Amino acid sequence: MSDINLKDFSNEELKDLKVKINEEMGNREDQEVIYSFQSCDNSDEKHTKENKHWVKLLKDVDTSKNNGYGVIGDFLKTRGEQSVKVDSLVVEYSCKGLFCYKVKEDEPELLVEGEPDKFVTFLKEIEKEL
Question: Where are the domains of the chain?
Answer without folding.
Answer: 32-129
